[in-house]
Structure formats: C-alpha cells, structure tokens
Design goal:
Layout lengths: L22 E3 L2 E3 L7 H4 L6 H12 L7 H10 L4 E3 L2 E3 L4 E3 L5 H5 L1
Length: 106
C-alpha cells in the first residue's frame, strides 16, 4: 500500500460497515445500488483522510519516492482523447487553463 490508504475499498469489509455513510431514497436509508459500472463509476468507498492523501499525491506526484507510482500517476493524467474543449485521461477530465466556470459546469 504505497499511499497508505487504510480506509479505502471497492467492497466495504463487514467490520467497517458501521462507518459507511448512508444515502436516502424515498425517505429510507440506502447504500449505493450495485450496477454494471458501479466499481468504475462510483465504487470506491473511502474516508476524508484517505481522499485527501490521494488528492495531494495527484497534485504533487513528484513528492513520491516510488518511481513506478509516480509514472503511473503521470500516465493516468496524460491526455488521451479529446471531447470538445475537454481532454480525457485515465479517470481524469482536463481543460486548458485558465478556464471559465461556465465551461466546467456545462
């Protein structure tokens, strides 16, 4: 675990379920519904500490000692496809800077 994400999962372990947040549908507490692309689209469950660590590493990958992880982050953030004004990487959507708020929202 090079990023030390100790509370990040695709499948939440039974012993951690008490800490897993609920959403609501029709006034009843529900977890995210499983679906064909749930792991890819919204399947990662984490806490704020792990999310902050992940964001920091992605903002400053040069701070990593692990060269293969640094290279992996660079590859994921590379521009592979263009869709209008937006570029897509591996899990990333990128716009040229500076960008107007209207462009991000639309």
């Amino acid at each position: 675990k090079p990023l030390v994400l100790d509370h990040t999962w695709i499948n939440v372990p039974k012993e951690e379920e008490a800490h897993y947040a609920w959403g609501y549908r029709d006034g009843k507490a529900v977890h995210v519904s499983p679906g064909m692309l749930n792991a890819e689209a919204y399947g990662v469950k984490t806490n704020v500490k792990d999310m902050a660590s992940w964001v920091m590493v992605n903002m400053k990958p040069d701070s990593l000692q692990d060269t293969s992880l640094r290279q992996g982050i660079a590859l994921a953030q590379s521009r592979y496809w263009r869709v209008g004004a937006m570029y897509q990487g591996l899990g990333w959507e990128m716009l040229n800077w500076p960008v107007e708020a209207k462009t991000v929202v639309e």
